[in-house]
Amino acid sequence: MDFRWEVVWIAMPQMIQGAQMTMQITLLGIGGGLVIGTLCGLIMAFRIPVINWLVFVYVSVIRGTPIVVQAMFIYFALPLAIDVTLSGFAAASLCLALNAGAYITEIVRGAVLSIDKGLTDAGLALGLSYPQVIASIVGPLAFRRTIPPLGNQFIISLKDSALFLVIGVAELAQRGEQLTAQTGRALEIWTAVAVFYLIMTFTLAMIMRLIERRMTIL
Questions:
Q1: What's the farthest any 2 CA atoms get from each other in the chain?
Q2: What pLDDT score was predicted for residue 189?
Q3: Cβ distance 169 to 29 under 8 Å?
Q4: How far is CA 101 from the centre of its chain?
Q5: CATH code, domain with 113
Q6: CB of 162 within 8 A of CB of 172?
Q7: DSSP letter at 168?
Q8: CB under 8 Å to 132, separation ≥6 — which residues?
Q9: Domains: count for the chain
Q10: Are 113 and 43 in contact (CB under 8 A)?
Q11: Hey, which of 44, 192, 193, 195 would disulfide with 176, CB 3.0 to 4.6 Å?
């Protein structure tokens, strides 16, 4: 096997730039997904009338369509519908946030519903208001139970960011594609790209594992 290390070193600056773009999109997507998923998960858990059905439709649409189709729709079709031009970076971040938000919705809903109703009744019996019970009892317990599945979703979102090469975002996967075309050395380039993804996913997994250890899972 003829593996040329010099190809990797020459391509390293561009791959680092691609990795930085990947992390920026992932962090924005995860942040937006957490906000969307938490709000929508609470709405579905407590069955808020009307809004509950809107959230159900949103989750069903996102979970029922591939993220590539969602990215193409947001980048190419949505601007035609609302007459607003989105950059590739903005479209990718929005797409990842909406996609992650749908899955986080189910994570949050499941965690909230898993809390014993007796704890809520006990909090109310102690004189706490319903919002206080949610904030002081149900919320912290549910949050602890969401940590493992959230970590899994964050890693999936990071890997899904590679699909945004279809809308021309210069993230790591697209950099790999460009460098392969320039150098003609697919073995070296894609091995390096794989190592970059492994490093990022491993780091994210270790961070979530640390949080999980700090927050005793009940």
A1: 73
A2: 92
A3: no
A4: 7
A5: 1.10.3720.10
A6: yes
A7: T
A8: 123
A9: 1
A10: no
A11: 193
